[in-house]
Amino acid sequence: MGSWPFIITQSLILIGWMVLNITAYIHHWDPYPFILLKLALSFQAAYAAPFIMMSQNRQAAMDRNDARHDYDVNIKAELEIELLHQKIDQLRATEVQELINLIKKLEAEMLAARGADEG
Questions:
Q1: CA 51/CA 100 separation, integer angstroms
Q2: 106: which of 56, 61, 89, 114 lies 20 to 30 Å off by Cα?
Q3: Sign, CA torsion 73/74/80/83
Q4: Rounded CA gap, 17 and 37, in Å?
Q5: Could you read off the pLDDT of 40-82 as tens digits, one per residue?
Q6: Per-residue b or e along 11-34, where b marks 16 or more CB atoms closer than 10 Å to that residue's CB
Q7: Is 2 a residue whose pLDDT tops 90?
Q8: What percent of the chain has pLDDT over 90?
Q9: Strand, coil or helix: what is 26?
Q10: Which helix (H) or strand (E) holds 94?
Q11: Is the CB of residue 18 less than 8 Å from the CB of residue 38?
């Protein structure tokens, strides 16, 4: 019902219905106020409403499912990022400790070199 072919076909049928009833080319089965046409369109609207509601409910369910999936993906990504931060912090701590050890070693070598120069 929500497609262009349907809208175009229905428009052509409605125009044909009105033209045939106005011009009296064929016997007037539905004269000017087009009561039978209005009845048919009302029936179509009443019949289409449940389909529209079902479609909206189905779309809402798919949207909820997509939102839940997005939430799960975001939580997983957040946990992975947190894990990466922990690994980077651990690497930094290791590098800092190595630098401290290197500085201590250099200080010890400098003190040993000064002691050798003084002696």
A1: 73
A2: 89
A3: negative
A4: 8
A5: 889 888 888 888 888 889 999 999 999 999 999 999 999 999 9
A6: eeeeeebeeebeeeeeeeebeeeb
A7: no
A8: 46
A9: coil
A10: helix 35-118
A11: no
